Amino acid sequence: MHNRTIPMRPSPYPSLNPPPASAGMTGVWQAFKRAAVSQCHPAMLFAVLLPFLIALVGAMLLLWFCWTPLTDWLRDEASRWSVVNNVDEWLVTVGLFSLKVYLVPVVAAAILLPVSGILGLAIAAIFVMPLVLRHVGQREYAAVGKQGKFGTAVSVWNALWVSLAFALGWLLTLPLWLVPPMAVLLSVFWWAFAFSRMMRIDAIVEHASPEERRILLRRNNVGFWVVGLICSLINLLPPAWVFLPVFSALVFAHYGLDALQRLRQEKVIEMARFPNVS
């Protein structure tokens, strides 16, 4: 006799068919697709102005107050580096250009512009994300109740430590930019870190309980990093700086709330399977 494998039939009751543990790459694509639709809403188009204007004003203030002291300090430091002096002398000798003339402004811009960018992202995380959550929550995730605690405090603390870690990491790895293609790779990595670490907390802090938050971050860590990586790649295009803080908030909101919805569906299923287990 031959053993026959009887295929398992799905339960006729939808509530007893468990959803997948995480959405995977399909969930990432779905989050970006939903965010593109949400971004076209007038309220979200208006929300683009806040982080952009703050980042723009921050960049102007940094350039006004910090450009001259920073470039003077960099020029003094560069004059002490024998490698820079030797390369500069060789370039001038062969009739090309002075390395110091171009190196100092480029390094100064590489320091100041990311500072204004992370400021805009932090503003989006703290002040714009609640608007984003209210917008998408009422329309697409109305069934996902709010069970978060100390949301504002958690959001502010998360924005502070991520901004500080980003700034320190960016400055400490800046010398590696001289080694091709580390300039692009490091920029992508640090912005992926900033997007994923900052936005993923704010996307779920209002709705998820502390226990749910820990489960979601552990289960969907790769997905959040993929979303951050894609946002970081988009960030390489300067025109994207205008809308990316709000658009990234929309993507993380859709991805995080969808993951939370899946998690709570699993809890309902477990309760239905084991009704007597407290």
TrEMBL record:
<dbReference type="Pfam" id="PF07264">
    <property type="entry name" value="EI24"/>
</dbReference>
<feature type="transmembrane region" description="Helical">
    <location>
        <begin position="216"/>
        <end position="235"/>
    </location>
</feature>
<keyword id="KW-0812">Transmembrane</keyword>
<dbReference type="InterPro" id="IPR059112">
    <property type="entry name" value="CysZ/EI24"/>
</dbReference>
<protein>
    <recommendedName>
        <fullName>EI24 domain-containing protein</fullName>
    </recommendedName>
</protein>
<feature type="transmembrane region" description="Helical">
    <location>
        <begin position="150"/>
        <end position="171"/>
    </location>
</feature>
<feature type="transmembrane region" description="Helical">
    <location>
        <begin position="102"/>
        <end position="129"/>
    </location>
</feature>
<feature type="transmembrane region" description="Helical">
    <location>
        <begin position="177"/>
        <end position="195"/>
    </location>
</feature>
<feature type="transmembrane region" description="Helical">
    <location>
        <begin position="43"/>
        <end position="65"/>
    </location>
</feature>
<keyword id="KW-0472">Membrane</keyword>
<keyword id="KW-1133">Transmembrane helix</keyword>
